[in-house]
Amino acid sequence: MQFELDNTLIDDILFHMENQDGNFVLDCQKGIVVDTYNNEDEPDWDDERFISLPKWDSAAGYRLMEKFAAGLKNPVARQELSNALNKNKGVFRAYRDILEQYPEIEKLWFNFKEQKMKNEVILWYNALREEWGLKPVGIEPEDDSSLVLEDFDIREEGKYNLKAHAANGDIAGTINADLNDGVLHINTLEVRAEYRGMGIGKTLLAKLLEKADVEKLDITIDIPADMDFFCRSLLLENFKCLTQRFIRKID
To answer: How many CB atoms lie under 10 A from the CB of residue 176?
Structure first.
C-alpha cells in the first residue's frame, strides 16, 4: 500500500524510531505509527498495510555520536565527547552531560542527529518507492557546518575592536586593530578554546575587513607559526604573504 511521506509523518517516525519500549510499525492506511503490542483496535492484521519502521537501535545511536564527535572542529569538546564514548558504561548519559556544557555544540548535535535520521527515513522510503516502481525522492543536503552564526552577537566595542558574544553571555572571540600611517594592523584575533573551530575567527575578520574596505585602508596581520591553518582564510580574503620570521632560541 503506497503512502506519501510528509514532514508530519517523518516526525512521527523519528519519534518512535528511538523508542525501545514498543514494537512500532507504520499504518499506511492511516498514515500514523502504531504499536503492535497494543493492537486491539486493529484485529485484521495486513502485512501490506503495516510496514516496519527503519531499523534504529543503540548501536546506530552510538555510531552517530561517534561520527559527530569525530567531525567536530572544537578540540576541547571533541576530546571530552570522545572520552565519554570510551566509557565502559553510561556512555549515552555521559555524552549528554558533556553536550549540556556547550549549548552551541549541543544545538549542532540535535540538528546533526535530526538530519541524519531524516535521511535514514528517506532512504527507507525510497526503497519502498523502488518496490512500487516510483522514482526516489531527494535526500536532504547534509550540512555539517560547525556554527549557527545567528547564535552569536558580533558587537563593536571600539572603532577597530569587535567581540563575539555567545548566547550565554560569554565573550567567544575578539579582534582588535590599530591604525598607523593609513595602515590598519590587527594586534589580536583570539577565540576561546571552547568556541574554536566554529568559524568565529573568520566572521570577526570579515567584519573588520568590511570596515577597512569602507575606509579604504590597507590591513596587516602577523600569524604565529602554530596558526598556519588560518593562512588559507587570509588568502581567500586577498591577503598576500610579505615576510616570514624565523627565530633560533638558545636553550
So the answer is: 18
